[in-house]
Amino acid sequence: MLSQLLPMLAITFSVFVLFFLFMGIGYMVKKQPLKGSCGGVAKLMGDERCSFCGDDPNKCDSLMAEQRETAAKAAQLGKSV
């Protein structure tokens, strides 16, 4: 039984490691946080209002645009954000 369990655990662990590795590479390439649905899990649990975006799915995009503008202004001044 142990001889069957160890390869399965090794494969499962390897898949998880690859998953997180690719997520990290994707973050480094795009420089954007992972995006989810606005209140997707909360709505499944019965909450009607999203506490993060206030039921405005464009709010996260506008915040990211503001952060990019701030970073660009800081880069022009020669400072890192």
From TrEMBL:
<protein>
    <submittedName>
        <fullName>(Na+)-NQR maturation NqrM</fullName>
    </submittedName>
</protein>
<keyword id="KW-0812">Transmembrane</keyword>
<dbReference type="InterPro" id="IPR007495">
    <property type="entry name" value="NqrM"/>
</dbReference>
<keyword id="KW-1133">Transmembrane helix</keyword>
<keyword id="KW-0472">Membrane</keyword>
<dbReference type="Pfam" id="PF04400">
    <property type="entry name" value="NqrM"/>
</dbReference>
<feature type="transmembrane region" description="Helical">
    <location>
        <begin position="6"/>
        <end position="29"/>
    </location>
</feature>
